[in-house]
Amino acid sequence: METYSSSNYDAFRDCVFTTVVDKSSAPRRKPNRRENGGKNKNVSPAAVRLSGHISTLDNNQTNPEELGDFSSYIATEIFSDLPVDLKTLSYDSLQEDSILSDKWSLPLTLSTIEEICIHISGTVADSLVAYGLIEPPKSDLQTFMSALLSAYIPSVTVPPPKWIDTKKSACEICDRDWVPLTYHHLIPRQVHAKVLKRGWHDEKQLNSVAWLCRACHTFVHRMASNEDLAKGFYSLDLVCERDDVQKWAQWIGKVRWKKT
To answer: pTM here?
Structure first.
């Protein structure tokens, strides 16, 4: 992996991993023989191993090491085929180049997605099918990439937050210090007006944040609505008191990336 794009690659891999975890934690149909690798030689070994025994996180049966390996494989294969300007995208690059800003503004155009997908290896699509991340004809590589880039682009182009001085060295839920961190508004911005109107919190509390990895950030927003987060989980202590959060933190903490 090129050193100049290592931070962007880390963010991209984190987005891939979050997508994989979301899919693996949902019920899925039993893969057919082709998806299990019986006839398809273009599927990655990681996908073949995983496709036959993905279970829900509730049963604690999903192997975090294999999820990490598969996510790294998919991220590396796709990222290496992305355009250079997408691999090096940043807040500063968009501010300095209006053409670049227009090109990568969301939502991406269909032609942009198609152009990206043309250059991605066919073995990637085979692995995504085997893993159930795309399910033709309901979804395809373009569908997958559109959602993935819609998560990746904001993660690498977000302006420096005013809370940067509060940034932690590790995720405040799972304690992993080798993954990119995002800031989570403990009182979601979407309900700030309602919070003030109903007197749930003082205005000075509205910008309280926690620094979380993308996987934990996604988990928190899945566990409760914005309104419920604002009313009942407006501090990190309240979030971490939940049994499901503690079980999640224990599970996700086992995921480690291999050096690239």
So the answer is: 0.69
